[in-house]
Amino acid sequence: MTGWVGVGRTHRGFVRPVNQDAFAVLDDLGVWMVADGLGGKPGGEIASQLAIDSLVKQAESHRRLLHDSRDYVPTLLSQFLMTAHHLLLDKGATVRQLKGLGTTIVVLCIVPESVSTAAVAHVGDSRAYLWREGALTRLTRDHTFGERYVEAGILTPEQARVHPDSHVLTRALGFGETLEPECSTFTLLRDDCILLCTDGLSKMLSDEEIAAILGSSGTSSRACDALVEAALERGGIDNVTVVVCGPAPTSPEIIQTNRH
Ligand code: CA
After folding, report:
1. Cα(176) to centroid(ligand 1), Å
2. Shortest CA distance to 223 belongs to which of 5, 4, 8?
3. How far is ligand 1, taken at its centre, from the CA of residue 73, in Å?
4. What pLDDT does 70 receive?
5. Distance between CA atoms of 2 and 7, rounded to whole angstroms?
6. In the chain, what are the helix, strand and coil shares in percent, each to the nearest 5?
7. Per-residue DSSP letter, 79
8. Contact 146/166 with Cβ under 8 angstroms?
9. Cα(47) to centroid of ligand 1, in Å?
10. Cα distance between residue 40 and residue 215, in whole Å
11. I need a labelling partner for 87 at 20 to 30 A (CA). Which of 64, 93, 97, 158 fits?
């Protein structure tokens, strides 16, 4: 155990016929992730689940490196994503119904030491946020045209929000021959929480609304329920998935964990 535990929730929403999101909570490995499949049936849901299964398998077979080699973890996570990327490319090339399948993904790894270090790697617009001392900070930048236009100064964030190409992805697992995963590391404080989510949450709620829910929920479990509930109240137009990861409770509270 790493001393950090995650809770995950996913919901199909009220409009999409299937849930193309997937997630995994691996407390014993210190690894948590969410993915959002792309494309029509059945590619989307298969892509996200294949990617999650691939990363779970790789994390399990690199357990020792994940725990003992803090400086190597970002490279390792990028390698995991590259392997999943090539798996999706191979499936798309060999199975006609799976042609063009892809997925976004964000993965968090915490290396337990006297001072815990976290690494976050992602591709696409699934996000990681840090909740620290009552403030919410986004740890990932979306790999979308919207984010690119804002970074280039072409659009303001407000203009990007309503631009028709705003949510078009510039990177995803399974798309294109090359892949550039983005990875960052940071030091965790004792009471930090990290939220991973698909765009079914971040499109529905502002960062301020997410922060308000995290600030008032009390436990990771309640935070997950409240975040999903809030996204559904906005119409549930997309699948929504959240994982909230925080320090293991010292109280007898049992936090439910899931592996999907
Ligand atoms: Ca989505």
Report:
1. 20
2. 8
3. 27
4. 79
5. 14
6. 35, 30, 35
7. H
8. yes
9. 13
10. 37
11. 64
pTM for the structure as a whole: 0.93
Q: pLDDT 10s per residue in the chain (260 long)?
A: 668 999 999 999 999 999 999 999 999 999 999 999 997 667 889 999 999 999 999 999 999 888 887 788 999 999 999 999 999 999 989 988 888 899 999 999 999 777 789 999 999 999 999 999 999 999 999 999 999 999 999 999 888 888 888 989 999 999 988 899 999 999 999 899 999 999 999 999 999 999 999 999 989 999 999 999 999 999 999 999 999 999 987 644 444 334 44
Q: What tokens does 171 get?
A: 């990177």
Cα-to-centroid distance, 10 and ligand 1 (Å): 11
Interacting residues of 11 by C-beta distance below 8 A, sequence separation 6+: 19, 228, 231, 232, 236, 239, 240, 241
